[in-house]
């Protein structure tokens, strides 16, 4: 499901401005032609480390794809996945214990990207928690997220505090829909009639998302998804 986040990685030049440290606020060369991104999918029953790669395009890539979403986004490739159990919400009574779970996930990513170790500081790592964390009382949820952020700041990868978030149910549904349609290549050409619906019966929640067929929508039931000039009105 966490494929979604990388569809927002817009690339326009061969020498991309990848994440950088505050001391080096200039464009840097990533290990051509691949760039890597990590996402921790923190679900209710377990957490998964997803490692993605995508090819850095040239300035003219997709320049003729005027009717394709490929002109605006890059589709990544999953190159590694590792799961730990239980989910991070099980650490609610002892927030500091969540580090043990995150440590195993980060160590997996280090091993998977060992060949590009000199560039680790440019590769972003994200954490997205779902229903398990939404069910934790706010004070304990905040304490857990604080521990997650504190640990992820200490990793050798590129991390900012806003890279760790608890998704709303609407976001989870929309991003699941995006992942499904990206994987099936049913986003290209803006043909909304060809898109697939998404039904997720998760461990602690239930989501459904689809593009409605009616031309008039009730705004409170919509989740606008702007991936291109046209976009997708999800319901």
From TrEMBL:
GO BP: any one term: nucleoside diphosphate catabolic process
Catalytic residues identified in the record: 172 (proton acceptor)
Residues annotated for ATP binding in this entry: 203-207
A GO MF label: ATP binding
Keyword Nucleotide-binding: yes
Family designation: Belongs to the GDA1/CD39 NTPase family.
Keywords recorded for this protein, A-Z: ATP-binding, Hydrolase, Nucleotide-binding, Signal
InterPro entries: GDA1_CD39_NTPase (IPR000407)
Top-level taxonomic group: Eukaryota
One Pfam family this sequence matches: GDA1_CD39
Signal peptide: 1-15
Descriptive protein name: Ectonucleoside triphosphate diphosphohydrolase
Assigned GO CC terms: membrane
